[in-house]
């Protein structure tokens, strides 16, 4: 049977099972319908019947927590900040980890550079070289940075920092540039448009492997091509340098 | 023995026979030899009175919340410090090599945090629903406990599980190569029940889930999935969620990458398009060889690994009866079959799955055989209920390159040597 006929067959079987299950559920529901009371109904969370739990959120509560920003600018607060403002804030709040120029200190994330490296052996994925949307910069800095002191930046601080990160990446070259909720969506990121939908299920190896080989699957002897022990980067357990990897059960 | 030797399977058994004969008095078979000697002379563990035969042990109040035997103290989560810049945005690994069955003990479930472990008093926790709903809502934990409950067993696998192995064999032990996965029974209420209380508008196509921790983790989830099988869960394996697993409440997104299972869940926003947050643009997008990147790669693919024997669980009993065991799982549903190879994928044998497991949960498999003491190249290959077969790493790299970071479900090879030690290798 070809892979796709087999898949279709399976899908058919699966569908039939689901249908049978649905029928079964419907029958049970019908059986339960007879003596049903209002009290019994209130434990049944079928669409449309509310349980009356929770309370309505106030506008202030929603405003306090809903700070997310979308690529189309939805969610941006009113505010503004310049590249030079951002440089000052960055030096005080960010550079100790990310470096003065967004180059990243030690193992901390690099924010700038890495252009044209995405097809290389060791790509450098930064805001400039990889991130598709500026909204993500604003949103993420606002909600989660500085690391260890999140939500400490004002709306204007975040506009200024976002402008400075654009400047570090040469996306904006004017030091006097001011980013605001008004001009925010006019900025286009270099790597926008290179993200593609998930098509893993269509990969050829999945199509080829419908009926996997069981015997004599490879011609000739199987050779070892790579060893983890040559690299030797696994933590050792119990201070025994010569022993197997950490967590050994022997 | 020389770990760099290339085993030629054609004459491996002859060579291995010689080596295992030489090893008979050595460390590899010391356990078996010791047991045999004791049996001949009368085992002192039987013939002599032991302390635990005579003296009383601790009473019932010694451990109000019990811990494993002291002899199991090495069965713990472990981390790899060089993987990340800081322990508060990092990962550790489930000791898969030492576990059996399909349920992961709560204290051993791997951790992945982006802002450390939030410690939230349950009476102070709130869950908000806003956006494209008839009425924005706030729920306390007390409110959540009054929703109809369901119990479901699901695996949770980090999208980056096995990610360090994209370029080749790197870490030596399945705890490190495959330990960003756990499987527990969750108790909670279907997410659709909560959304129903707020009243979904028909324009609501996406859901943003947000955590209450310092990373304020956010992910966009298609509404179809949210209404299908997602749970808002507050118990795991019968007890409250562990703090490191999102106490007091987390999202359960069956079959999908662990990053989406937002912990310390505090807000659900309904919208008409995805938010493109940091965790679905900068992270959890999969770079391909041509420089493009896949996004919204939600589902975890069919996968398996032999957990024992493995580099951290060598064979200590010598030749003879040997149990190979491992885990298989798929975001597509149940595992239909697992095959095991002893010769690096030339020949395969159907393994036994026990127990019959649940959709989108791990499945435990066994392959029992007589080891002749020769070098083996152990592999497992899973097939799921939709007919997807676990690929080789080579097949994956051929279509994706080596820089995807996430979603490495390639077949794992362990090199079993004649002395019973194992190593993580790749084969041709």
Write a concise keyword list for the protein shown above:
heterodimer; A: 250 residues; mainly alpha; two-stranded antiparallel ribbon; 6% strand; disordered N terminus; B: 428 residues; alpha+beta; Immunoglobulin-like; 3 domains; 5-stranded mixed beta sheet; 5-stranded antiparallel beta sheet; heme (chain A); metal ion binding (chain A); Cytochrome_c-type_DH (chain A); electron transfer activity (chain A); Cyt_c-like_dom (chain A)
Topology:
The complex is a heterodimer of chains A (250) and B (428).
Chain A: H1 3-33, H2 38-41, E1 55-56, H3 59-65, E2 80-82, H4 83-93, H5 95-98, H6 134-144, H7 155-168, E3 178-180, E4 195-196, H8 204-208, E5 224-227, H9 228-231
Antiparallel strand pairs in A: 2-3
Helix pairs in contact in A: 4-7, 6-7
Chain B: H1 9-22, H2 30-41, H3 44-47, H4 51-54, E1 78-79, E2 90-93, E3 112-113, E4 126-131, E5 137-140, H5 141-144, E6 150-157, H6 174-178, E7 181-190, H7 191-198, E8 206-211, E9 218-222, H8 223-228, E10 231-236, E11 239-240, E12 250-252, E13 265-271, E14 286-287, E15 293-294, E16 303-308, E17 320-329, E18 335-341, E19 349-350, E20 352-353, E21 363-371, E22 376-384, H9 393-400, E23 413-416, E24 422-427
Give me the CATH architecture of the largest domain in chain B, please.
Answer: Alpha-Beta Complex
The secondary-structure class of chain A comes to: mainly alpha
Q: What strand order characterises the main sheet of chain B?
A: 5-4-13-8-9
Largest sheet features of chain A: 2 strands, antiparallel
| Total beta strand runs of chain B | 24
CATH superfamily of the domain at 80-186 in chain A: Cytochrome c-like domain
Q: Considering DSSP H and I runs of 4 or more, what fraction of the residues of chain A is helical?
A: 25-40%
Shape label of chain A: extended
